[in-house]
Design goal:
- The protein has 297 residues and is α/β, with parallel strands linked by helices.
- The chain has two domains: 25-202, Type I PLP-dependent aspartate aminotransferase-like (Major domain) (Aspartate Aminotransferase, domain 2, 3-Layer(aba) Sandwich); 205-296, Aspartate Aminotransferase, domain 1 (Alpha-Beta Complex).
- 35% of the residues lie in helices and 20% in strands.
- The chain has an eight-stranded mixed sheet with strand order 1-2-8-7-6-5-3-4, with helices on both faces. Strands 9-10-12-11 form a four-stranded antiparallel sheet, with helices on one face.
- A hairpin with an 8-residue loop joins strand 11 and strand 12.
- Helix 1 packs parallel to helix 2 (59-66) and helix 7 (204-226) packs parallel to helix 9 (283-296).
- The structure holds pyridoxal-5'-phosphate.
Length: 297
């Protein structure tokens, strides 16, 4: 496929509707692969990667570590907002990449353009993982025409349901694309993944209609969760909602739900000990989880 000019589908139902436009993009593997590829191929330049709190999706830090770079994790604040000052403080002479997810998994919140600009002004390569972009319509991709040190990563795993194929794309300045093409490994995504990617782009309208249904269901689930005393749902731009419970309560509720055949996502990090994440499913699945939570909490 033409690796430099790919039409990026725009999310249809959102608070912010970007104009359809053609941007410079290259197909790539998943986010972990992108980071490990850059780090290992540009090892003499990349010593350290700063990762803004990836308490659930920790593949990036792991990929950087395995590729031989040090990683520094910068915690988010008590509202899970990114802490730009702490990120700046974490930078030292070895730092080359700052990595942040937006919407973040599992907290669901979105970085603002201002926050990303603040990170870009450090001069480091800033990689924004927009794996859930289609579920919120908020993107910093437009900044790639202004900042040559910005990479926006997207995946076909979520909105197009191609998770098993590990295929996505990166949006960045043409100059940076040339550089990445220069250093990336010669093999690209598999032909099977490429066929699925192209078929999904052809079928983008129908796939984005599914995304709309998920977004509507997410908002319905959020309001229902808000109505259950003892559950605090966090607003989300992803296809999931993070729920907070009273001190020490989440583990027991999680087990009870599992006994009823309802399996949610809990976390090993101590910061998220009182939380679990509910993925948005069908309306029937939402009703079942809400009914069970109302009884258990
Ligand atoms: C923030 C984030 N980025 C990336 C991924 C994975 O994307 P891919 O399937 O392209 O590896 C996930 C998967 O859970 C994720 O939560």
């Amino acid at each position: 496929m033409d690796s430099k000019k790919t039409k990026i589908p725009q999310q249809t139902q959102s608070t912010q509707k970007p104009e359809p436009r053609v941007v410079a993009a290259i197909p790539c593997f998943n986010t972990e692969h992108f980071i490990s590829d850059i780090v290992s191929r540009a090892r003499k330049y990349v010593d350290q990667v700063i990762v803004i709190d990836d308490s659930s999706h920790d593949g990036t830090a792991e990929a950087a570590r395995v590729a031989g770079a040090g990683t520094t994790s910068v915690q988010r604040d008590e509202s899970f907002e990114i802490d730009v000052a702490a990120a700046r403080d974490a930078i030292d002479a070895r730092s080359k990449i700052i990595f942040v997810s937006s919407p973040n998994n599992p907290t669901g919140n979105i970085v603002s353009e201002e926050q990303v600009k603040d990170l870009l002004e450090t001069g480091l390569l800033v990689v924004v993982d927009e794996a859930y972009y289609e579920f919120c319509g908020k993107t910093v991709a437009a900044l790639t025409s202004e900042f040559e040190n910005l990479v926006v990563l997207r995946t076909m795993s979520k909105w197009a349901g191609l998770a098993g194929l590990r295929v996505g794309y990166g949006i960045m300045s043409p100059k940076l694309i040339d550089h990445i093409i220069d250093i990336k490994q010669p093999y690209n995504i598999s032909t099977v993944a490429e066929a699925a990617l192209l078929a999904s782009l052809e079928d983008a309208e129908a796939l984005l209609r599914n995304v709309d249904l998920i977004v509507r269901e997410r908002e319905r689930m959020f309001s229902l969760l808000e109505g259950i005393p003892g559950v605090k749902p966090w607003p989300s731009g992803g296809n999931f909602v993070l729920c907070q419970f009273g001190l020490g309560r989440a583990g027991g509720i999680f087990e009870e739900l599992a006994q009823r055949g309802i399996f949610l996502r809990k976390f090993s990090s101590s910061r998220l000990a009182d939380f679990f994440r509910i993925s948005v499913g069908t309306p029937e699945q939402t009703d079942a989880v809400i009914l069970a939570l109302a009884e258990l909490v």
